[in-house]
Each structure stands twice: as C-alpha cells, then as structure tokens.
Amino acid sequence: MNATPLDLYPEHPEADLIEEPTVDTTAMATETTLLNPRFYTTDFDEMDKIDVSSVRPEWDKLIAQMKSDPNKGHFKKNAEWDADWANMPTPLRREFIDFLVSSCTAEFSGCVLYKEMKRRGSNPDICELFSYMSRDEARHAGFINDALREAGVAVNLGFLTKAKKYTYFQPKFIYYATYLSEKIGYARYITIFRHLEQNPDKRFHPIFKWFREWCNDEFSHGEAFALLMRTDPKLTTTWVNKLWIRFFLTAVYSTMYVRDHQRPEFHKALGVDVEWYDQKVFRTTSEIARQIFPIEVDIDHPRWQPNLRRMRDAFIAMDAAQKRGGFGGWVGKKTAAVRAGLAFVSLYLIPVKRNTPPANVRLEPSY
Ligand SMILES: [Fe+2]
Ligand SMILES: [Fe+2]
Questions:
Q1: In total, how many domains does the chain have?
Q2: 1 vs 43: CA distance, rounded Å
Q3: Which end of the chain is more exposed for a tag (fewer CB within 10 A), N or C?
Q4: Which residue in 252, 253, 350 sits closest to 303, CA to CA?
C-alpha cells in the first residue's frame, strides 16, 4: 500500500534530490498534522475497474481538452517575473513561505496519487486521465518550488515521497476529498487572481500572475472527479454517502479556515480580509459543487462563523499548550482538542441545503 518509489517520477526533474539547504521547508512539508496537506493512497485495483461508458461523450471531450495541453508553455518564468524577496518584511516572508510550502505539498500530493494510479492501472480511460493530471500537478509543484528556491529554500520532493506518511482512503473518499480539493483550489486561486486584478499594487510576488491558467487545470481535474462520481450514482445518492459528503465538506472548509487564519501578514499584504476571502471561496466552491453533490453546507447559518472561530481558537490553544509542555501542557492540549471537536460537531450538525444536480454534470470555469 505504501509503495511509492522515487522511480515513479523519472520525467519529473523535482524527483532529483535538491542539493540546497532544504531542511526546514522539507521538514515543514513532511510534518503530518491534522491541518497540513496529506499524501494519500487507495485501492488502485478498484479504481481501475471504473467504467466510464455512461458518461462517454462528456468524458471524451474532457480528455481531448486535457490532451491538447493548453497550459504546456504556461509554467515558465518570463519578463513578468519580478520577484523581490530581499525587500519582503520578515513576518510576511515567513508566512508566504509557509503558504508556498503548503501549496507545493498539496500539489505534489496530487501528483504522487495520480501518478501511482496511472502506473498501477490497466484501464486505458483511467490511465490516460491520471497521466494528464499527474503531468499538471508535477508542473504546479515544480513551479512553486522554483519560486521557493529564489528565497534560498525549497521542498525536497524526492525525499518527501519517501518520508511523508500516507493516509489510506477507500476510493469513494478519494473522490469526495480530491474533487473538493481540486474545486476549492480553483476557487482559492481565482479569488486571489481576481482580487489582484483589481488591486495590482498588492501583488507582492509575481507568482500570482500565473494563477488564472493554473486554476483552469485544477478546474478540469475537478471535472474529471465529478464525471467519475457520476459513473456510480450510489456515491452521491445514498443516505450514508450523503452523510460522508457532508463530513468532507465540513472538514475541508473548516481546515481551510483554521489554516488561513494562521497567516495574518500574508492576507494583510494582499489587502484581503481573511473572513471575506474564506466565505467567498466557500461560496464559489459550493456553487460549483452543485454539479454533483445533492447537498451543500449552509455557510450563512448563524452557527457557521461562530463555530469556525471557536475551532480556530481551539487550535491556537492547542498550539500554545504544546509549546508549554509538561503535564499542564498535556491537559491544555486535550481540553483544546475536545473544544475543537465540539465546534466541528456543531458545524457538522448545521442543517444542510438540498440540491438536485443537473443531468449533464460538466461545467466550464466562469469565475
Ligand atoms: Fe495543481
Ligand atoms: Fe489539480
């Protein structure tokens, strides 16, 4: 299950061990916490059995679009790349590096999972899809790592493949989690891009200029998972699976909220109110997810924001208790964990909104 050899990435230059002082950032990326991006593994044989004939016309169209590789030349620095790390205030620099490391880890996590599916599979439809998606994610991770290297740091991706813990998810959980992370990735990138279009003076690093075409890749990846889910209607219609979808929506949204609130300087530099930004991203993601999910979380419910804040505060308290150490720290950590758990339960129990997904699942990026 945990076979993730380095030779998975022969064509990907990042697989080479990077001979730079990479220890700190790689350690950041390797650390497994509740909030950090994870690496996943699954039942690849089961996924290989997927039959896409029920969605064939939409499938072929999407695959043809991915095959045409519209972003082939996009992830290259050009004259517009004007990074200025030297003049970045230290607190901002620290949070921005954290943002890039976390994004790079998430991108690379997708790359590893998709590449492994392609390598193990024999179903031509599935293998073709996963080869295009791993190609894209390798590019994304590599591009972020290039940006990090200019700051004198980088994530050692080859090392990460071996050192990171892998979480096993059965295929249906991979669909829910990965579909959501692709769509939320799209919503995050496009929201920042549109905001900086209006406020170009806040663009403190050139990487944001690359976000529009970038997020279109993520959008297509999300489309692929929507089609995969559509091949098996049970995944989105049974009572139990609806509870799971609800769980993943709540978990993905609340994790994003807590993580984003750990980067106040980063959002201040962008001129973004983090509460506004997160709500905007949730709204966009929820609108898109109506293509496939029969329910959505009610982000305007009076219990939504207060419990997100409660959860964020509990994570801050957990961190402080951890640093304190000793018996008091242990007790503080457990108490904070219970508080975070209660906030999560309260979020999970907010009545959901019902939705009837359309007959044709496909969407185009329109934000
Ligand atoms: Fe990506
Ligand atoms: Fe993606």
A1: 1
A2: 8
A3: N
A4: 350
What is the DSSP secondary-structure string of 49-83? T--GGGGHHHHHHHHHHHHH-TTTTTSS--TT---
Cα of 135 vs centre of ligand 1, distance in Å, is 9
What pLDDT is attached to residue 3?
A: 33
**Paired residues of 296 in beta bridges:** 353
Measured distance CA(242)–CA(73) in Å, rounded: 40
Residue whose C-alpha is closest to residue 151's, from 225, 207, 196, 109: 207
Q: Does residue 222 sit within a domain?
A: yes
Model confidence pLDDT, tens digit, residues 250-268: 999 999 999 999 999 999 9
8 Å CB contact between 255 and 272: no
3-state SS assignment for residue 12: coil
Question: Which ligand has the minimum distance to the alpha carbon of residue 221?
Answer: 2
Pull the structure tokens for residue 261: 């609130």
Q: Which ligand is closest in space to the CA of residue 222?
A: 2
pLDDT digits (tens, 9 = 90+) for 231-254: 999 999 999 999 999 999 999 999
State in Å: Cα 38 to ligand 2 middle: 14
d(CA 321, CA 19): 36
Domain range for 144 is 6-232
> CA of 186: how far to CAs of 154, 177, 216, 243, in Å?
24, 14, 7, 24
Strand, coil or helix: 103: helix
Does residue 186 lie within any of the structural domains? yes
Please provide residue 23's backbone torsions phi and psi, each rounded to the nearest 5 degrees: -55, -50
d(C-alpha 110, C-alpha 61), whole Å = 22
Please indicate, yes or no, if residue 217 is contained in any of the structural domains: yes
Centroid of ligand 2 to alpha carbon of 219 (angstroms): 7
Q: Coil, strand, or helix at residue 36?
A: coil
What's the 98 CA to ligand 1 centre distance in angstroms?
17
Low-confidence stretches of the chain (pLDDT beneath 50): 1-23
Chain segment 151-161, per-residue pLDDT in tens: 988 888 888 88
Name the closest ligand to CA 218. Answer: 2
- Per the listing, tokens 């890039």 go with 100
Residue 145 lies in a domain: yes
* C-alpha of residue 335 to centroid of ligand 2, in Å: 36
